[in-house]
Amino acid sequence: MNRPRTRLSLRSQQAGFTIVELMIATAVFAIILILITVAILQITRVYYKGVTESNTQNTARAIIDDISQAIQFSGGQVTPTPGNAAGNSYAFCVGQQQFSYVLGYQVVDNPDGTSAQSPHGLVQNTVSNCPSTPAPNLRGAGSVPGRELLDQNMRLANLSVTSVGPNMWKIVVRVVYGDDAILQNPTSPTASCQGTTTGTQFCAVSELTTTVEKRVQ
Asked: Where are the beta strands (DSSP E) in the chain?
């Protein structure tokens, strides 16, 4: 015959986690969540850093390719880059192709007027009398004819086209992506990303140099 269960035996069978065990489990779960969150943030930062660097490198490469092809095949006079002071509009000519530029200013649609920003940074345009055509005001509010060669949030830190021999030209292009707050010397030719971790995924620098021969006179 089965004996009736006592109240003590019923309580022992229904026993669950203690408060201490629940607190330990909660702490372990919280640590795991924190580690997962940190890993996701790190992966996201690395991903955006790669995208930013790739876009900046592609833009610098496209600029140096456009200038190189113009020097090689467009014919006509090539004028060296006239200046390198930040904030001023300059222009140089390759045949009838005019490349106008402003150094050190971030390209944005609506400049805030308080930082180094400009609606244009580097514009390529075809003009009928390039050497005699003055550089357009790239920092002005009006539209500028031609094709903008820089993407948004990028700036042209350095651009140099110099003669290094008969029909030989050296081209140096330095493109920087990022806001003033995350850059060192943002308006100088040596602008670079700050050595901090905050915001580095939105900062990149690409500098390219090449020498080309003028093939069409």
From this structure: 89-94, 97-102, 106-107, 117-118, 122-126, 147-148, 154-165, 168-177, 183-184, 192-193, 204-213
